[in-house]
Each structure stands twice: as structure tokens, then as C-alpha cells.
Design goal:
mainly alpha; 5 helical Cullin repeat like; three-stranded mixed sheet; 9 strands; about 5% strand; Cullin; ubiquitin protein ligase binding; Cullin family profile domain-containing protein; Cullin_repeat-like_dom_sf; Cullin-like_AB
Length: about 725
């Protein structure tokens, strides 16, 4: 009779734990580099099975708790006895290398032990809410190694960083790996070893290092050299953070470096004598200016002092330019050219060196406005600019000779300059007058250039600013079409003009400046031509009324002098006076006045131009430079000139006063409109607030005078648009 073997009894604690200790000893020998073979699958299964059996036996033979405590005890015995002494025996970078090695070994050891004790991880630990095997192992390393050596390790790393800052090469990988351990411990334990035990001290060390460096360099370096040094340091710190610091440290490290090197010495840097921002701007240090902008842009409010000095420099340089022009009594054109060059230089700083930053554009604007709007050589800035534009847009100007590109570039520059002009409405009125003269006298170099200039003004200031100018250009095109049709009409009816050639420009009243209309006795030859055009135009536009502006007209007369025939280009009034001498060679002033019926001031201008000007077509008795009512005029048959065609100019009429009067009148209307618009929306408003809002609205076109605003308020009260508040005399009410 056969018998089966009895099943094995429960694993005793001493037997099972002895087997686990043997496995742990082998694992330690492998990690310490002894000639020990790796664990085989059979050995691994054997150790796992021992733990499994010891955990699944019925009480009192269930050794789960004892195994968990034994696992922790194994690590507690190994780490202080083997790991810590090994690390403590090393110094400097070797300390980091040993720590890195021991940390890696520790993680490998935990990995294998977790496999052996895996059954604990599955059941016993969750049931009893214990730390995981990995957490327990990391906690042992944290308490028994890290807490003991972290100060020493930190000091070694900070020392290496300082040495690297001084140009020495260090083992970056060792630093990186140790700092990675700091981060891993932080992630595993929920504590903050990296942030609290390293980063905070690293930032303090950075502050101290760069404070010493800044104190040394700020005394000996020029501003460009100091900025170059700061830029290099910031580049190195970014590189350092990228290679071996945690990503969260980069922004903090860079900010700390910026603060110590730049922000704390900001004013001292940019105001350095003989090399600061003023000197860099003066000497066109483009690269250094760009570097300054790049560096201070990254600092909160770092650009404000730089922009303030930029504004101050623009102001002082502009005032110096203004004084130079004024002292030298140079021409208006030379002044504007200098200002254009000056603006182009500092605008290029704003766009190229300061990357179009709004702080610097604002500083440039405020700096320019401080000197640009002053009168110079007896002329306002608005008038001077309009005169400059008139000059280069005329035929034969120096700019025109340079070609279309030069004209367009000049237009662009002037349009930018207008942004700083306070009396934009005055510029607009002067420009409209001068545009009208260019168009009507055929002195405009190119209509396309005129349109381009107007379009730039429109972009800058809106359609209200340019609507009349655009209307003038359109008018001229329509007038040319009308003239072409009239010439066709003349060909079909050659007798109507008595053989004379007539060219008529029809203008729309609202677009063009107001011109004085004078009724006078039209010469018969001219009358036939005018009558012919009236007949033609009545058929074309019966509803429109024609008003003839003879002061703008011109005639070509044939002068038959003793020596030769000369073609005379004269005004309509000059032609009327000269045609009188076809019948009689001699006329008194009173005779001419009776024949022409021109106003005295206009007749004096005409006779002065013909008898006292460059070309003496008439001889005057007595021979003086002034015209009097007793003078007698005679046709100068002996007059001659080397040219076969001459233009007889009229004395210039001063338009400036009339333009300023028109603008002042228009400003009153603008102020009235602004006040009514404000009160219509607000209903009740205090005096100071009303004046302030009115100024803000009108500042775009001109700088209103506060006294004028007060007068306009009183006028609106008299006209029942506004009324004073009965309870508060300093407030106004809007009357619908």
C-alpha cells in the first residue's frame, strides 16, 4: 500500500526572511559593481514566491506586516551604512558624481525590490493605506542622505556656477543630473527640495555675483560696453538654464540678472557722461541703440526713462537746429529741408532701433511739437510748410528734376511731418490757395503728384481736410473737357470770337478760394469771346450761373514796337489797359480810369506793372516809382527785349493776412459746432469740463484759444443755444 507525500507546512518567518536577505545581498553586490551574475528568471520567481507564500498564509503565519517593515528596514540599514559614507568621502564635482551614482543605484534597487515584494504592493499596502514601496524607499533616501548632504551639494553647485560665470568649463552633466534628483524628490514627495533648497539660494547667489560685477563695470565701462557685457551675461544665463537648470528657473534667473545688471543702474547707464543715450543718438550708434532697446524692453517700465531721454534729446537738438537756421537767416526752403532730414533721422531710430515702439513715437511727437510750431524768419510753420510743398510741386523745381520717385518720397516725408503741426487748418487753407494758383496758372508739375499729395493728407487727417482740394482737381479735369467741347463749337462757328483764341476754365464756387469779382469795361475784342462762351455754355448747362473772375485771367497780346514784334503775356486787366493805346498813344490816369472803370487800387497795380516794373511797356510822366492820379502814360514804341515773348508780372498781393482772417473765421464756426455737439449729448455741463472737451475735440486740427472759446460760449448763450444753470452759474444747459 502506497502513501502520498504530506503538503509542505507554512513558511516560517526566519526561513523566508533569510532567503529575502540573501537576495538583497546579491542585489547590493550587483549595484556596488562586484563580479556578481544578474538575477535569473528562476531566482526572481523564487523570491516572489517566498513573499507570496508568506503573505497568503493564514494567521498567525501571515507575515505581510513583517515583510513591509522588513523591506523598510533593509533600506534603512543599507543607506546610512553604505551610501552616505561613500558620498561623504567625496568633494567638489566628485561629490556630485558620487551622489548621482548612488541615486541611480537607489532607484534601480527600489525597482528590483518592488518586483520581489510586488504582492505586498497589490494587497497589503492598499488595504492598510500604507506608503507605496517606491515612496517608502524615496523617503528613506530623502531623510538619510538628502537631508544630511543637501547644503554641501548646493554649495558645490553654486561654486561651479560661479566658476562657469568666470569663464571656467565645468561638468554640466553632473550638475544637471544632481538637480534632476532634486526635482524628482520634489515630484515624488510633494515637498519642494529644488525650489526651496536650491533655486532660492541660487537666485540669492546670482544677485550677489552680479551686484559685484555691476559695481565694478558701471565705474569703468562706457554705456555701449556695459550694455554689451549685460547682453552677454543674459545670454549665458539663458544658456545655463537651458542646459542644466529646471525649465521653471529660466525666467526667474533672467529676471534676477536683468534687475541687478540693468534696472538697478538704469539711470546711471543711460545718462553716462560722454557715452550715454544722448551721445549714442548724436553719433548714430545704431547697433548700440538697438541693443539698449532689446535689453530694457524686457524690464517692466524699463523703456520709460529711455523714451524720456530720447524726447529730451529730440527737443534740445530741434531747438539747436531752429536757432542755427534763425541765426544764419537761411531760406525757408533750407529750413524745411533741414527739418525733414532731422525728422527722418529720428524716425529711423524709432522704427529701426526701437522697433516702432509707441513710447518712442510718442516721445518723438512731443519732442518735435516743442520746437516745430514756433514762427521762424517771420513766418508760421504752417505757412512755411505749405510754401515748401508749393515750391517742389511746381514745374521746374529742384525736386522735379530728380524724378517722380524723389517727389513721392518728399511727399511722404512732408505728410509725416504734418502730424506734429498744431495749426493744420491754417496749413490746409494756405495749401488750398497755393494749389489753386498752381492749377489755374498751369504751374503744377504733374496732376498725379498733386493727387498723391492730397491722398497722403487724406490718410493723415481725413476727408474733411482734403475734400475741397479733391474737388479742385476734379473741377480742373471737367474744365478741360468743357474747353475741348468749346473748341469744337468754335470750329463749327468760327465767326463768333472774331478770330481770337479763348480758353475758359469753369470752376465750382465751393471748392476754390474766394476771389474778388470786379465789374469793368471789357474791351470789345474780349467781349466777343466772352459772349461766345456764354452762348455755348447756356446750351450745355442752362441752370448754372457763370461769374467771371477777370483777376485770374490772362491774355497774349502782339506788341508792335519799332525794333521788333514781341508777344506780351499779361493779365486781363493789363490787356484791357494796353488795348486802349491802339486808338491813342497818350492817356492820363483819369482817362484810363474812366475807360476801364477799375477800382483805384487795382488800376494802380496794373499801371505800375506796365510803367514802373521790369518791362516798361508804357512811359509815365513824371518818371517816378509811384502812381498818382495826375500821371500821364504814353505807349513806349522804342521798347525792346532780347526775348520774343515776355511775361509782364503784376505786383504781388499779400495773401497771408486774408488767409489768417479766413481761418480765424472758420475756427469760430468750428468752436461753435463743437460746443453745440458736446452740449447736445451732455445736456448739462460745467464750464471747465465743457472747455476741456471742446479743446480735446478741436486739438486734431488746431490749438484753440481758451479766451475765444469763452467768447463763443457767451455768443451761443445770446443766440439761445445755451443757457446758464440758475442754481449753478458755472454750469450750462443745452436749449433744444
Amino acid at each position: 500500500m502506497s502513501t502520498s507525500p504530506e503538503p509542505p507546512g507554512p513558511v516560517k518567518w526566519s526561513d523566508g526572511w533569510k532567503e529575502m536577505e540573501i537576495g538583497f545581498t546579491k542585489l547590493v553586490r550587483i549595484l556596488d559593481g562586484y563580479d556578481e551574475p544578474d538575477f535569473t528568471a528562476k531566482e526572481y520567481i523564487q523570491l516572489y514566491t517566498v513573499v507570496y507564500n508568506m503573505c497568503t498564509q493564514k494567521p498567525p503565519d501571515d507575515f505581510s506586516e513583517e515583510l513591509y517593515n522588513g523591506y523598510i528596514q533593509l533600506i534603512h540599514d543599507y543607506v546610512p551604512n553604505k551610501v552616505l559614507p561613500s558620498i561623504n568621502s567625496k568633494h567638489d564635482v566628485f561629490l556630485l558624481e558620487e551622489l548621482e551614482k548612488r541615486w541611480l543605484n537607489h532607484k534601480v534597487m527600489l525597482k528590483w525590490l518592488s518586483r520581489f515584494f510586488q504582492y505586498l504592493e497589490r494587497y497589503h499596502i492598499p488595504r492598510n493605506s500604507l506608503r507605496t514601496l517606491k515612496d517608502a524607499g524615496h523617503n528613506c533616501f530623502l531623510e538619510m542622505v538628502y537631508e544630511k548632504i543637501q547644503v554641501q551639494v548646493r554649495n558645490v553647485i553654486l561654486s561651479l556656477i560661479d566658476r562657469e560665470r568666470e569663464g571656467e568649463q565645468i561638468d554640466r552633466s553632473a550638475v544637471k543630473n544632481v538637480l534632476s534628483m532634486f526635482v524628482e524628490l520634489e515630484r515624488e514627495k510633494g515637498t519642494k527640495p529644488y525650489e526651496n533648497d536650491f533655486e532660492a539660494f541660487m537666485l540669492q547667489n546670482t544677485d550677489a555675483y552680479y551686484s559685484r560685477k555691476a559695481s565694478k563695470h558701471i565705474l569703468v565701462d562706457s554705456c555701449p560696453d556695459y550694455l554689451l557685457m549685460a547682453e552677454e551675461c543674459l545670454k549665458n544665463e539663458k544658456d545655463r538654464a537651458t542646459h542644466y537648470l529646471h525649465s521653471s528657473s529660466e525666467s526667474k534667473l533672467v529676471e534676477k540678472t536683468q534687475d541687478v545688471l540693468l534696472f538697478q543702474h538704469l539711470n546711471q547707464i543711460i545718462e553716462k557722461e560722454n557715452s550715454g543715450l544722448h551721445i549714442m543718438l548724436r553719433d548714430d550708434k545704431i547697433e548700440d541703440l538697438s541693443r539698449m532697446y532689446r535689453l530694457f524692453k524686457k524690464i517692466d517700465k524699463g523703456l520709460e526713462p529711455v523714451a524720456a531721454i530720447f524726447k529730451k534729446h529730440v527737443t534740445s537738438a530741434g531747438v539747436a537746429l531752429f536757432k542755427e537756421i534763425e541765426d544764419a537767416a537761411k531760406s525757408k526752403k533750407a529750413y524745411v529741408n533741414k527739418v525733414l532730414e532731422f525728422h527722418e533721422k529720428y524716425l529711423s531710430y524709432c522704427n529701426d532701433c526701437f522697433m516702432g515702439d509707441i513710447n518712442f513715437h510718442k516721445a518723438l511727437k512731443e519732442g518735435f511739437e516743442s520746437f516745430f510750431n514756433k514762427d521762424i524768419v517771420g513766418m508760421s510753420c504752417a505757412e512755411m510748410l505749405s510754401t515748401f510743398c508749393d515750391t517742389f510741386l511746381q514745374k521746374g523745381s529742384a525736386v522735379e528734376k530728380l524724378g517722380d520717385d524723389a517727389i513721392e518720397k518728399t511727399i511722404e516725408k512732408v505728410a509725416l511731418l504734418l502730424a506734429y503741426l498744431q495749426e493744420k487748418d491754417l496749413f490746409a487753407e494756405f495749401s488750398r490757395k497755393k494749389l489753386a494758383r498752381r492749377l489755374l496758372t498751369d504751374r503744377s508739375s504733374n496732376l498725379e503728384h498733386e493727387k498723391h499729395f492730397i491722398s497722403k493728407l487724406k490718410q493723415q487727417f481725413g476727408s474733411y481736410f482734403t475734400s475741397k482740394m479733391e474737388g479742385m482737381i476734379t473741377d480742373l479735369s471737367l474744365a478741360r473737357e468743357t474747353q475741348a467741347e468749346f473748341e469744337t463749337y468754335i470750329k463749327d462757328n468760327p465767326h463768333v470770337t472774331q478770330g481770337a483764341d479763348l480758353s475758359v476754365t469753369v470752376l465750382t464756387t465751393g471748392f476754390w478760394p474766394t476771389y474778388k469779382t470786379v465789374d469793368f469795361n471789357i474791351p470789345p475784342d474780349v467781349f466777343y469771346c466772352i459772349d461766345a462762351f456764354k452762348t455755348y455754355y447756356k446750351c450745355k448747362a442752362n441752370s448754372r450761373k457763370l461769374t467771371w473772375i477777370f483777376s485770374l485771367g490772362g491774355c497774349n497780346l502782339i506788341g508792335r514796337f519799332d525794333s521788333k514784334i514781341i508777344e506780351l503775356q499779361v493779365s486781363t486787366y493789363q490787356a484791357a489797359a494796353l488795348l486802349l493805346f491802339n486808338t491813342t498813344d497818350r492817356f492820363s490816369y483819369q482817362d484810363i480810369a474812366t475807360e476801364l472803370k477799375l477800382p483805384n487800387d487795382e488800376l494802380i497795380r496794373v499801371l505800375h506793372s506796365l510803367s514802373c516794373g521790369k518791362y516798361k511797356i508804357l512811359l509815365k510822366q513824371p518818371n517816378s516809382k509811384a502812381i498818382s492820379h495826375s500821371d500821364v502814360f504814353e505807349f513806349n514804341s522804342k521798347f525792346t527785349d532780347k526775348m520774343r515773348r515776355i511775361k509782364v508780372p503784376l505786383p504781388h498781393i499779400e495773401e497771408k493776412r486774408k488767409v489768417i482772417e479766413d481761418v480765424d473765421k472758420e475756427r469760430k464756426f468750428s468752436i461753435d459746432a463743437a460746443l453745440v455737439r458736446i452740449m447736445k449729448s451732455r445736456k448739462v455741463l460745467g464750464h471747465q469740463q465743457l472747455v476741456l472737451e471742446c479743446v480735446n475735440i478741436l486739438n486734431r486740427m488746431f490749438k484753440p484759444d481758451i479766451k475765444v472759446i469763452k467768447k463763443r460760449i457767451e455768443d451761443l448763450i445770446l443766440r439761445d443755444y445755451l443757457a446758464r444753470d440758475e442754481e449753478n452759474p458755472n454750469s450750462y444747459k443745452y436749449l433744444a
